[in-house]
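Dear colleague,

Thank you for sharing your sequence with our group. We've completed the structure prediction you requested, and as agreed, I am returning the results in plain text so they can be pasted directly into your records. Please verify that the sequence below matches your submission; if there's any discrepancy, let me know and we will rerun it promptly.
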Amino acid sequence: MKRKIANGYRLILGYLGIFLILIGIICLLPLLLLIAYPNESNVLFSFLIPGCSSIIAGIPLILLIAKREKGHIGKFQDAILLVLIWVFAILIGSIPFMLRGISADGAGSMSFSDAVFESTSGYSASGLTVFDFNESLPGYHIFTTYRSFLLLFGGIGLVLIVTSTISDRYGLKLYTAEGHNDKLMPNLAKSARLILAIYLGYIVLGTLSYWLIGGMEIFDSFNHAIAAVATGGFSTKAGGLPEIISNGGVNSITHMPINSVAINVTSVVLMVLGATNFVLHLFIFRGKFKQVFKDCEIRFFATMCIIFIPLFFACILRNGIDGMSSNPLMALGDGAFLFFSSITTTGFSTVSEISAFGSGAILLATVMMTIGGGMGSTAGAIKQYRIVVLFKGLYWSIRDKLAPKNKIFPHTTYRLGETRDVDNVTVYDSAGYALLYLVVLVLGSVLILITTNGEYTVGNAFFEFASALSGTGLTVGVTSGVNTVSGVAVTGTPLIQTRWILAAGMFAGRLEIMCIYFAFYRFVRDIFRRETV
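Please find the predicted structure tokens below.
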């Protein structure tokens, strides 16, 4: 007997069920820390309720396609599925934050708006935060690690996680829709498992480096290793890495003092690895270093280092901290770190208030985090490959105009181990996305200014939304309501609205904007029963 076929929205709901189970598992994972911190069992139900509910909700949805042959998802319906996956992930992921004080008279629990903001920041691997780091509140270690898990799964990609266990013809389609435009191996599931193994290996090595060389506590080391590799920027302290370093002290296990240089170097290495294309990691582990160094993104990144690190150094040295003249060596270190943190869209910093570096460094950081990391990495923003294509397109346009009419030049670039032809469609797509990204960036910044009635400077509003849209997490205080105009903190409705705008920016940037438009376009046409061809 021929099996029935699951098509369209039945297939979408079936796949959504699979992801709901994954989301539920992500909610339950932090409870493993109860082994090390049994005194934090008072937050057990904060994770059990959303985790188990998500798993239970996913099972009947999977049954919609369990006994059917998988059929066809229509044009742009993969975008609908992807948007649904991320919306449910964020909403379900916010519930533990709201239930944090369920057994402690509400202590530490977040409002709906703040919980959604924190969940969005985690899953989008942004790092902007409204989390209360008071260690006396319920479940400090469990909740802090939960935030890191959100970064890990969100940064690597929910689709990549699921396709490491299942493989079908729609795995690659969803993987591409999620913003990963480079093919891995012919078998996506095998590729996904290998990528996951590599990233977990980086996290283990990063943890050991932070702990054994940097002198950080093992808990701090583990969470910062995840945040760096996922280019997310969440920390275990309100003041981030600077607070850990400035507190000094001695590691309780190794009895080593805090080594700030080792911590910063480890952070830079992990950030760069996280912002490098997945495929290039495979080349590195196969010893294909020539292909790696010839890659157009790697060469572009090296060029950015040569140009911008001296500029960061000059700006910080000129401005100093609090207007004081800085030590040249410290200025170079701070400048290089801010450069790597910005271009990898991680959000770590060597100071608690980056505005102390001056407006020049802030402007450079805005440019870097708008460019972003490599295509097919955990980083966000426009992505380096698109910028490479735009610069090459400009060069080719000028060269072709100056060349004799009968002479034809190739339009090629070396990408992921091979020389590729770059057609006009690729250039147009890159230019179109870059333009759309900048339009959204300006629009979001203006909305913040309107919402807060000019309580922030244009530069601060632009920087904060650029940080959210790119998934960087560097902040000049807009997220927390620090007013740089009147000095009076922004609170109440304007602050809530600002956070929703920033959350929308993080969400749009993570799904690369167009995916949301395609999902909306197809959904509206389906409602009115119009064919999408």
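Summary note from our side: The mean pLDDT is 87.

Kind regards,
the structure core
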